[in-house]
Write the structure tokens for this entry.
Amino acid sequence: MIKAKTLFVIDDDAIYQLITQKELEQHGPHITCKNYYNGASALQALQELPEPPAIILLDLNMPIMDGWEFLEAYQQLPTSLTQHIQLYVVSSSIDYRDIDRAKENPLVSDFIIKPITSTNFSQILQ
């Protein structure tokens, strides 16, 4: 039996959030998707929820708190909260500096260039 997973989508693009939600529905009812339009609201939820998400999909360019600011704050959280979370940067940026910077962060599992594919989702959810 597949264990239920909660996934955070931190992205200010409502269309991307909807596409992600629909794609996740294809992978089964065991996935709960929570959407956040900026890093600040996701960070607050992360600290308040009784159980952290299994996966975070993080965009880089957002208002209020962008992805880089979120990562800085995320690194300050207790390891007990973050140790079992897989965090993926999902961005339209093809700038090698963004890709390298994200991949150098030990808390980032991978950098995925949008649009995210069904194959990407399958790999992330395994």
